[in-house]
């Protein structure tokens, strides 16, 4: 059932793009890791709820996404059924949710193409916010490549899409987070790795949208793990 729902949304969006009403496009598809090699983590800035259908539809269908959703979305039986059917993993926002991280690691190991928003929440205006370390931890524990992604133009929302505002998704070159000898990540290492990840996302954004990741000043940012 989930594949049918996902496919219907996918076809609807592509129809709107094909007739020229929705000006959504994607750049950097050549950077995608081969799907047959297994799981991967798409680490992307988060601006508006339409970020999810945008990247889901603009990626090739075989890269069908799994993503993390706030646990509040799972409270009613209907929404719980829908989001589980759509491969969404519930997560407690604002906390280090060990269960969600472990579930995500296992899903990636089994081949999931996982979408993670390192900022932890929507920015609303498209300006990149300080990153959190969960994606680094998942990447290290799963051994999967991280693929930096940036979305531009989604701050206009769905209304902007219907007004033919442009939305662009850019995919950067994947990278791997090497595991530490004991599997632990010291705080200074976590800060460094998280900032490196965020700089790669920032490089795909216009300069005015890079927030604190425009210079080496980000070395001093606090990282929530």
Keywords for this entry:
single chain; about 220 residues; alpha/beta; Glycerol-3-phosphate (1)-acyltransferase; 7-stranded mixed β-sheet; 7 helices; 7 strands; about 35% helix; about 15% strand; globular
Explain what you see:
The protein has 225 residues and is α/β, with parallel strands linked by helices. The protein has a single domain (2-220), classed as Glycerol-3-phosphate (1)-acyltransferase (3-Layer(aba) Sandwich), CATH 3.40.1130. Helices cover 34% and strands 16% of the residues. The chain contains 7 helices and 7 strands, in the order αββαβαβαβαβαβα. Strands 1-7-6-2-5-3-4 form a 7-stranded mixed beta sheet, with helices on both faces. Helix 1 packs across helix 2 and helix 4 crosses helix 5 (134-142). The radius of gyration is 17 Å and the shape is globular. The model has no long low-confidence stretch (mean pLDDT 91).
Order of H and E elements = HEEHEHEHEHEHEH
The CATH level-2 architecture is identified as 3-Layer(aba) Sandwich
Radius of gyration: 17 Å
Helix amount: 25-40%
The biggest beta sheet is recorded as: 7 strands, mixed
Stretches where pLDDT is under 50 for at least 5 consecutive residues are none
Shape: globular
| Proportion of residues in extended strands | 15-25%
- The average pLDDT value, as a whole number, equals 91
CATH topology: Glycerol-3-phosphate (1)-acyltransferase
Strand order of the largest sheet: 1-7-6-2-5-3-4
